[in-house]
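sorry for the late reply, my laptop died twice this morning and i had to redo everyting from scratch. anyway the thing you sent over, i finally got around to it. pasting the sequence first so we're on the same page, its 153 residues, then the predicted structure underneath. double check i copied it right bc i was rushing
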Amino acid sequence: MAARLRDRSLLAKPAPWAVRYPVRVTNHPPSLRVRRAARALALVPAVVVTSAAGAAYAAPPETWDNGPDVSTVYTLLVLGGIPLALLLLITLLVYLPSMTGRDKGYQPGQAWRGEAEWFGGPRGGLEAADAQSGPAVTDGLSTPVRGGTSGRW
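ok and here's the structure:
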């Protein structure tokens, strides 16, 4: 019986590599008071911001002239139509090259037609890098070794 208890006590100890949390981790939801307090605290910024906007309801000075009345259709066209037209124009300009069918882009199985890019490298490319780095390391062959992890470019 003592051996059994001793084995159970060994199982109760966490492994040395186990993660130890600073507090007890449970899936019990917080109490009702805590949830209500959190909700009330979340509403405080909204109440403060909307109450600070009270000056926006102030009346304009009486010396200001009233502007001409603007129709609802005109307002909708300016505030909705212009942004929608810009969106459609930009979308058309983006998709127009592919819709014409001239630019097919890269097709699988074809050779890559673009030039190689080395962002952040020397302006002269690999040849300029070799000239700046001094003598190249060879791997027993006549060609110098370039690239990391046995890469040859």
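The chain has four helices and no strands.
thats about all i looked at so far, will dig more tmrw
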